[in-house]
């Protein structure tokens, strides 16, 4: 396949803004990129085979949504109404709503229902340029339902054509049946869920929610030690609602990422920089929870911590079905530049998933995951408030719609 007649935002680091190649072309063989450059320089032997005409638009790497909870039962529109009348997210959670209400709905949903609803959500992301998505469990909170969620998430890959990575989030909330026995539940997570998910090859990583309404830093330490014992990489929901020292905790464990970070201190940022832990910014959650506190973006930038951007698609804190709107919110709420935001949903997101050698930029040797946009400049991806016109989505050199 040859993509021609447009401009290419390779998103490769260093060099031109957006790694831009005006009047560029991308040549693909066997699902991988074999050549990128100005179309005028295209080697003759690559000028054959099927052509995808970019019609003057921009070609970017396929978007990578590296933080979602898109498999779940039910919805929380009722809680949204209560929050608008003044109740807080934490109050609702402490009163037995919040994550636990989605756990009830997920436990009672059948596999088929979880798959069909998950498929509808993931297809919406794919139509907006997403070629890779991470999907977390965390609404089962018992061994069977957590594994069931991971199996459904895995099945969504072949069902949609999107490349899917799964993350076990057993330590998302305390399930009601363990309300008086935190230690007992952590035993289930560490001694049953993590080993079972690892043995079945169902999880690519382990995540935990470190927060007053969820798990303490010491409890998250325990979860991460269990994950490391099974050689699973770790990530953390860190400092979203209060400063728990989550960023430093993630760094201490060599986590791939610390996510949210609204309340992270500069000390936490320094620890992340030293450990190479990536920041995953989730402006959909900050916006939907109407939290005026923003992550320490200046400090992340000045300490050289790479920033990824994701939808956090979930029923409670970020029912955000448009990755392009996440880019816009990252700029408007967190003051990322459009280039940082797009880099955060391509190059940096690939690193969060450990796939930086395979995807995330349009460079020779990488998989041919691309999106073609009807825009005159790549900044338009963050400029339109959702709905930037995505014309084609290609994974491994094949149009997603053609799968
Ligand atoms: O990323 N912070 C914890 N987990 C989700 C919210 C889950 C929920 O409210 O259902 C998040 O915001
Ligand atoms: Fe999340």
Structural commentary:
This protein is an alpha/beta fold and 403 residues long. It has two domains: 2-61 and 361-402, Urease, subunit C, domain 1 (Roll), CATH 2.30.40.10; 63-352, TIM Barrel (Alpha-Beta Barrel). The chain contains 15 helices and 16 strands. It has helices at residues 77-84, 89-94, 99-107, 111-127, 143-160, 182-199, 217-229, 246-252, 266-275, 283-288, 297-302, 323-334, 338-344, 347-352, 380-383, and strands at 2-9, 20-29, 32-38, 51-53, 58-61, 63-65, 130-136, 163-171, 205-210, 234-238, 257-260, 278-281, 307-309, 370-373, 390-395, 398-399. Strands 1, 2, 3, 4, 5, 14, 15 and 16 form an eight-stranded mixed β-sheet that branches. The protein has an eight-stranded parallel β-sheet with strand order 6-7-8-9-10-11-12-13. The longest helix has 18 residues, at 143-160. It is globular. It starts with a strand and ends with a strand. Fe (iii) ion binds at residues 67, 69, 237, 312, 314. N-(iminomethyl)-L-glutamic acid is lined by residues 69, 98-99, 102, 209, 237, 240, 285, 312, 314-318.
């Amino acid at each position: 396949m040859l993509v021609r007649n447009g401009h290419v935002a390779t998103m490769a680091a260093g060099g031109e803004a957006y790694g831009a190649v005006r009047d560029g072309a991308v040549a693909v063989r066997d699902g991988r990129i074999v050549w990128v450059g100005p179309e005028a320089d295209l080697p003759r032997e690559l000028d054959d085979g099927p052509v995808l005409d970019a019609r003057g638009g921009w070609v970017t790497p396929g978007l990578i949504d590296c933080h979602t909870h898109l498999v779940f039962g039910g919805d929380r529109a009722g809680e949204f109404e209560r929050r608008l009348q003044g109740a807080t997210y934490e109050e609702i959670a402490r009163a037995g709503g919040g994550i636990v209400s989605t756990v009830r709905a997920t436990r009672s949903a059948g596999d088929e229902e979880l798959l069909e609803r998950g498929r509808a959500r993931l297809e919406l992301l794919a139509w907006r340029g997403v070629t890779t998505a991470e999907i977390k469990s965390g609404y089962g909170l018992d061994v069977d339902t957590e594994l069931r969620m991971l199996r459904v998430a895995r099945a969504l890959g072949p069902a949609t054509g999107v490349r899917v990575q799964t993350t076990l989030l057993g330590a998302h909330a305390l399930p009601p049946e363990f309300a008086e026995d935190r230690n007992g539940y952590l035993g289930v997570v560490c001694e049953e869920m993590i080993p079972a998910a690892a043995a079945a090859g169902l999880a690519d990583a382990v995540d935990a929610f470190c927060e007053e309404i969820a798990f303490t830093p010491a409890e998250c330490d325990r979860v991460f030690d269990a994950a490391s014992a099974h050689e699973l990489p770790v990530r953390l929901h860190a400092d979203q609602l209060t400063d728990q020292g989550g960023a430093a905790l993630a760094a201490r464990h060599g986590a791939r990422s610390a996510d949210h970070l609204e309340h992270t201190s500069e000390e936490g940022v320094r620890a992340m920089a030293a450990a190479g832990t990536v920041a995953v910014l989730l402006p959909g959650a900050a916006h939907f929870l109407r939290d005026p506190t923003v992550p320490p973006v200046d400090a992340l930038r000045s300490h050289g911590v790479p920033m990824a951007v994701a939808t956090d698609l979930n029923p409670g804190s970020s029912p955000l079905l448009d990755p392009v709107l996440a880019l816009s919110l990252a700029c408007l709420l967190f003051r990322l530049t459009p280039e940082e935001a797009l880099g955060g949903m391509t190059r940096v997101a690939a690193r969060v998933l450990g796939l930086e050698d395979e995807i995330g930029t349009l460079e020779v040797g990488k998989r041919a995951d691309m999106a073609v946009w009807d825009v005159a400049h790549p900044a338009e991806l963050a400029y339109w408030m959702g709905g930037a016109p995505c014309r084609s989505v290609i994974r491994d050199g094949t149009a997603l719609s053609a799968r």
